[in-house]
Hints:
Alpha-Beta Plaits; seven-stranded mixed sheet; 15 helices; disordered N terminus; Amidohydrolase; Bact_exopeptidase_dim_dom; N-acetyldiaminopimelate deacetylase activity
Amino acid sequence: xxxxxxxxxxxxxxxxxxxxxxxxxxxxxxxxxxxxxxxxxxxxxxxxxxxxxxxxxxxxxxxxxxxxxxxxxxxxxxxxxxxxxxxxxxxxxxxxxxxxxxxxxxxxxxxxxxxxxxxxxxxxxxxxxxxxxxxxxxxxxxxxxxxxxxxxxxxxxxxxxxxxxxxxxxxxxxxxxxxxxxxxxxxxxxxxxxxxxxxxxxxxxxxxxxxxxxxxxxxxxxxxxxxxxxxxxxxxxxxxxxxxxxxxxxxxxxxxxxxxxxxxxxxxxxxxxxxxxxxxxxxxxxxxxxxxxxxxxxxxxxxxxxxxxxxxxxxxxxxxxxxxxxxxxxxxxxxxxxxxxxxxxxxxxxxxxxxxxxxxxxxxxxxxxxxxxxxxxxxxxxxxxxxxxxxxxxxxxxxxxxxxxxxxxxxxxxxxxxxxxxxxxxxxxxxxxxxxxxxxxxxxxxxxxxxxxxxxxxxxxxxxxxxxxxxxxxxxxxxxxxxxx
Length: 485
Ligand SMILES: [Zn+2]
Ligand SMILES: [Zn+2]
């Protein structure tokens, strides 16, 4: 049913109460139909008068009885009892990348209490929780655990007031401004549902709490720590991210949810001289400026127009004084792609443009620009097409087509280090997004009538109840299909 899980928040209260109150089979049935089929329906928008009117107009036997989703009802109960307090704790107590010590400890205790065998300290502060349930596929679900050095300015009651010393010794504010607290709470919720349904599935469920996603290092560290050798290589892998411009209560899935990223620096050499005698040297500011502009033609002229590719020069440092031509300039770039071919063309194009721009300025061969990676590259997160189609079908049939936020279009080329778990591993994987913002706000923003505080904003605030329940529902529904008996 469309939005079936939302309805079930009402099942414990208003829904059944109304049925008794009206005491008339058809009136009650139509009331429920109105509930269940209201688009984006908050139950309080359904007017009893409207239901009554519909009742009078409805021919007998035309209305199908709504299908209940007991899983959604169970998740709603678990949210009130256990997940809401867990989310409150995690949101109010964020920790920076590689410093997720209390977070990992809390996650370990939650997952142990759910019956999982938990190993901590995998890839520094990561953890792996295993639930074995006979012979069957091993399925991995990953949640990231780190927060950001952002000062929370949202009006959430559990807003973070945390300040810590970061790895460089600076005192910084900390906030779960990317929703990783939603991912962790959903992971625990999924653990509860799967542990309660062991008779419905078989295999090994492997839940991963990954550190340092925001520094794009945690997944690689867990791989370097032999996660798949120690705990088994998954037959399938799942992950999700809450996104501010997707409607809370909905999900979406696409072939390339995240891009690959290369972070580079280019040191452009020049020959220093007096600012009033440029002919006596080679000006690195001019050479580097030409490189910055020429790099944009690598994207537009070397890459096929329908292929995703991006080069951003985010940092440009040179010189000390207006009348001095220095001897170097330093550029820092992020380079994004979604295929090996595009990535190779971008990296080759950057080298070609940088070196030949310097040659054109007359720089000697031993003083051409130096290009190097400043960080470990991140591969693109690409969904397995067959698995994506299978899960789309499962979600659609179990949760209704309305579960998808079809108005969402990924615009940027954000990266995600989850890719290190699956890229080149031959593990079919699906990474999906879940909504974080009430539907009305999303619709208004898409119509150009308002803005949404996006992930990483100090004002980022998700509808945690809906987001987390949707995360658990979508993940558990997928797992019950992939691991079905
Ligand atoms: Zn983030
Ligand atoms: Zn994130």
